[in-house]
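Why Lipoprotein? Reviewers of the renewal asked for a concrete example.
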Amino acid sequence: MKIQYILIAILFAACQKEQKKTETADFNSIEIPEVAETNAKETEKLPLHIDTIILSEEKNANVSRILANLMEKEVDKDSIVTSKFRLDFYQNKTKVASSNVEIKQYEKGAEWYGSFGLTDSSDKNSSFIKITSGYPACGYTHDNYLYYLKNNDLQLVHQWYSMSDSGWGSWTEFASDETGKDPKNFYCKTVAFEPSDDDSEDAGIVTYSDSISFSLKGDKWKKKLLSAKERPYFEKKMTFNEFHNQQ
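Here is what the prediction returned.
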């Protein structure tokens, strides 16, 4: 009888040992799911379209070209399309700065233009860069941007709309009392020249509005509105020839 109990005890212990081995094996066989590595280059959003703005062919230019990357289009409830762009500024083959802008009702076939300086007579190595986007035809609204790029630090100083139709239209004019490549103070105003309401086809009315002063504080530009927003502070009746002969 004792031998029988001893055999049962041995068999029971063997079963328990085998069960523990099985449980341990099952636990160790659980695989931890791997986390997929994300490649930044693969996930970077590619542009829908790219336009190139050539600014300078000189090797020492602050910016030689700008790439206008169309990144996205959004349509709101009123079916107004907003196009989102990333502007990449290049010095030769090196990207030195970027800026994001949005344009509503961007026309298919619109073109991009760029130039250095506040005015046409500005230094070609100016830190100011003007960019214009719009359809190249009369009567279309253009989006305009004034940037300031110094030591690879880019700032959008001002933006505005312009339109020209056979000598009529509206635009922004910049001026400064300072001389030199980059003034530290300047101002701008919106100029509009529109046909008058009388019977003369040659008569028009010129108005000035939105006078703004700009000043460089440290390394950032500050602006101040000097007149009532979108309300003319100057108005004069002129013929078409009188207006354009004074320009």
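The first helix runs from residue 2 to 28. This is the kind of structural detail the renewal will allow us to pursue systematically.
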